[in-house]
């Protein structure tokens, strides 16, 4: 059984940075592409970024381009989301997910429990 465990969330000020981590554990991991989504109350889960397990450039939502960077360390089975120049609208619960790598949450089969990011002005 594969598990995704996020960490690194917290409360920060506008303009600050955070690094989220997602550790993938389990014996049946099948080399999924990995993504980050965020959710706020009343809004559907939003795609933030994704990266293939093979590597290469990540894919980003327009509202995080130039500020966020997704990366992975295959040796550690860990995916990272470097978040720079955070804004209050970046506030939400951030989820790590394994799946197709697309923008669509329904194409991801594996989900972590989420980590809260709160950005105050």
Task: Summarize the structure in words.
By secondary structure, the chain is mainly β. It has no helices and eleven strands. Strands 2, 4, 5, 6, 9, 10 and 11 form a seven-stranded mixed β-sheet that branches. A four-stranded antiparallel β-sheet has the order 1-3-8-7, with no helix packed on it.
Task: Provide the fold topology.
Elements lengths: L2 E5 L2 E4 L4 E8 L7 E7 L6 E6 L7 E2 L7 E6 L4 E6 L8 E8 L8 E4 L3 E6 L1
Parallel strand pairs: 2-11
Antiparallel strand pairs: 1-3, 3-8, 4-5, 4-9, 5-6, 7-8, 9-10, 9-11
Q: Kindly provide the radius of gyration, computed on alpha-carbon positions and rounded to a whole number of angstroms.
A: 13 Å
The low-confidence parts are: none
Largest sheet: 7 strands, mixed
Helical amount? under 10%
The proportion of residues in beta strands is over 45%
C-alpha geometry: globular
Average pLDDT, rounded to a whole number, is 93
Structural class estimated from helices and strands: mainly beta
- The number of distinct helices, counting runs of at least 4 residues, comes to 0
Features of this protein?
four-stranded antiparallel beta sheet, 0% helix, seven-stranded mixed beta sheet, 51% strand, 121 residues, mainly beta
Quick synopsis:
By secondary structure, the protein is an all-beta fold. The chain is built from no helices and eleven strands.
């Amino acid at each position: 059984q594969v598990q995704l465990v996020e960490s690194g969330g917290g409360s920060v000020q506008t303009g600050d940075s955070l690094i989220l981590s997602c550790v993938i554990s389990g014996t049946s991991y099948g080399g999924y592409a990995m993504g980050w989504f965020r959710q706020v109350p009343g809004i559907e889960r939003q795609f933030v970024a994704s990266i293939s397990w093979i590597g290469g450039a990540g894919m980003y939502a327009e509202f995080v381009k130039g500020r966020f960077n997704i990366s992975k360390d295959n040796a550690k089975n860990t995916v990272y989301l470097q978040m720079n120049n955070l804004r209050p609208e970046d506030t939400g619960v951030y989820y790590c997910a394994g799946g197709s790598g697309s923008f669509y949450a329904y194409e991801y089969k594996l989900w972590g429990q989420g980590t809260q990011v709160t950005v105050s002005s």
